[in-house]
Structures are given as structure tokens and as C-alpha cells.
Amino acid sequence: MRRIYLDHAATTPLHPEVTAAMIPFLGERFGNPSSIYAEGREARKAVEGARAQVAEALGADPSEIVFTSGGTEADNLAIIGAVFACGREKAHVITTAVEHHAVLEPCHFLESIGHAVTYLPVDGSGIVDPDAVRKAITPATVLVSVMHANNEVGTVQPVEEIAAICREAGVYLHSDAVQAAGALEVNVDRLGVDMLSLSAHKLYGPKGAGCLYVRKGTRLKALLLGGGQERGMRSGTENVAGTVGFGAAMELAAREWRERSQRILPLRERLIDGILESIPYTRLNGDRERRLPNNVNVLFDFIEGEAICLKLDFQGIAASTGSACSSVSGEASHVLLALGIPPEKAHGSLRLTLGRENTAEDVDYVLETLPPIIEELRRMSPLYRP
Fold first, then answer.
1. pLDDT-based confidence at residue 330 (cuts at 50, 70, 90)
2. Which CATH superfamily, name and number, covers 4-11+257-380?
3. Which one of 84, 144, 221, 247 has the fewest beta carbons within 10 angstroms of its own beta carbon?
């Protein structure tokens, strides 16, 4: 049976050029970058080469890139590190109700030790009002964290407007750009951010690699202590192969993001229109225009998304109900709840996220396969009354 992968928001396959870049560092080039002899120098050169690739893709200086194990660690370092560095007994952080758990959980931790956090609401499309950010800032505010694009519904936030507000108030702005990189232009100066999180495996790079961009002058306290790697900001022997793969993936993303997005966008529109036109009692989640070019998140009344995903899997289609990082909890998506969707309806969501290898034939197959699955599940639902 042919397989169609439509969960690129969860993870992406390695790009062949990324694999080729990594292979030597999984074998004969095994040196520790902290060693002073030839093998170590070779590894250090590779790490610094990747740092330059990531920096160039972001419009940053290489010294502003801190390599991490991925987006979650980068988010934790940005949020907890900024608060710990400010030296206040009770600092204030502002974020949104639709952030990834890698942002929300560090905020909950800060609350547990006496700091204050404001969780701003979003509108029905998932967009936060920049003026709400302005009104929420207090003299105690240290950091604002607003994601670039949402991992579940694909909504793109007005980061540049929020950045101007934060600059005016003298407050740091962090943005989780894990989903945006590779799909949108991610330039730190145009966005105006002080910190920005990335993860390699969302843009055809390896799992276990990512970074935090930290603008020069931003005060940050390290969370991982030990050997002092990454200029003291992230101790631990570097993941050389993963870092090299991340650098290669970022270089490709910077070169190809526009072409990738322009190719995928018509497929997204075809998929959205086809689902909404062929299946009744269905709605699109997130903003139709301010949206990642590969994201389709739809809600089907009367049934549960998990059952839809299992049925699709049997037909050779890989899809999800939302964030792969929290899908095991069984709870309704906090993102959909924040959009004002009732819990009983939020369970009926399906997320289809396209990638570089998907084709119009893949979309056609989904549009042929999905309607009978929805009809079958609705016939079994006690809530469905056609």
C-alpha cells in the first residue's frame, strides 16, 4: 500500500543533502570539539561552520547562536534563563494561551516559584492583539513570548508589531519559530526579536538538534552547567552530527523556503476547499489568510479526531489531531479551546500538514478517502442526526 505522509508539523524526513552532510560525523570524523588535537579541531570547525550557516539564514551573527537539543530546550532556556538573569524576586512574563507546551510549562514553573505570568487570549482565528500585549506590560515585566506560527492551526502571529511594543517598553521578546522556519522568512532583525527558538527536525534536519538565537546584550542565565560549552550558555559535549545536519537544513531552508511555500500553497487550498465542500458539518480552524502555507486543520462535528486518524492510517495516510508532543494526553487541544471551541467539538479536529514531497495526487487521494471515513464514523456516533 502506498503511504502518504501528511504530518510534517510533527516531524519531517531528512533531506538527502542533510544526510550526506551528517554521515562523516557519524563515522570516521568522531572527534570531540573541545579536544585540541586534529580530530577535535576538525569537529570544532564543523560545529562553527554550522553556526555560521544558521546565523546567515537568520540574518544574525554567529556569536548569537546557542546550539541546543531542540526547540523545547531553546524555549526553556529563553524563558527561565531570562527571568533568572533579571535578578528580581518577582518578575513578570507575558505569553499567549496558544503557545506550545514547551513555552507554557516553563511559565507554569516560574509561577510555582513566585513569579507572575499573564496568558493573553486570542481571537477566534488564534491571533493575539498587539494592543493586549501593550496593556499587559508592567514595570515588573521582563519577557514577552509569542510564537511566530502556531503548530496546530498554523496561524501566523503579528510578531513585528509586538516587537515594536516590546522595544518601546524595554522588554525582551522571545518567539518560538519552530513551525515557521522553512515555511516563512525568518529574519531576526525584520521580526525584531531578542530571542528565537528553532528545531532542526521540523525543517528536514535531524531530531535532537536546535538552537536559541540570543541577540547581543540580552541577559540570560544558563540552565545546563558543566563544561562551559556554547560560551557557557549550554554545557555538554556538542552533538556534532546533529549540529552539522541542522546547519545544512537551515541553509537549504533559507534558499528554498519561498519556492517550497509557493508550490505547497495551492495544494493546501485545494485540500481545504475540497474538505469543506464535500463534507458537511465541518469548519476550518485558524485564520484562512494569516496561515502557514502547509497547514490544514479542520473540525468535524459529532466524531473524534483520533478515530479519523486511525481510519486514515489504515488507508495509507499519516495525519494527526494536533501536536504530536501532547497527543498522548487524551485532553482537548488547549489551542482549540483558546479559539473558543467547546471541548466536545475540539476532540473532532484533524491536522494535515503538507511537505516538500507531497503532490496533487496525494491531495486527490485524501479527498477521495476522507469523506466516506467521516460518514462511516458519524453513522456510529450517538451524537449524529443527519
1. low
2. Aspartate Aminotransferase, domain 1 (3.90.1150.10)
3. 221
Determine the Cα–Cα distance for residues 81 and 140; give it in Å rounded to an integer.
16
Domain range annotation of the chain? 4-11+257-380, 16-253
CATH architecture of 16-253: 3-Layer(aba) Sandwich (3.40)
Neighbours of 355 (CB within 10 A): 18
**And the C-alpha cell for 221?**
542565565
> What contacts 72, CB < 8 A, 6 or more positions away?
102, 199, 325
Q: Which of 107, 166, 211, 325 is catalytic?
A: 325
CA distances 22 to 131, 170, 198, 243, Å, are 45, 41, 19, 9
pLDDT (average), residues 253-278: 97
Quote the cell numbers at residue 66: 546557542
In the chain, where do the E strands start and end?
Answer: 4-5, 65-68, 92-96, 116-120, 141-145, 172-176, 195-199, 210-214, 282-284, 295-300, 317-318, 349-353
pLDDT tens by residue, 39-90 = 999 999 999 999 999 999 999 999 999 999 999 999 999 999 999 999 999 9
Catalytic residue at 325?
A: yes
**Cβ pair 163, 191 in contact under 8 A:** yes
Q: Give the dihedral of Cα atoms 314, 319, 323, 329; nearest 10 deg.
A: -20
Integer Cα distance of 179 and 156 in angstroms: 10
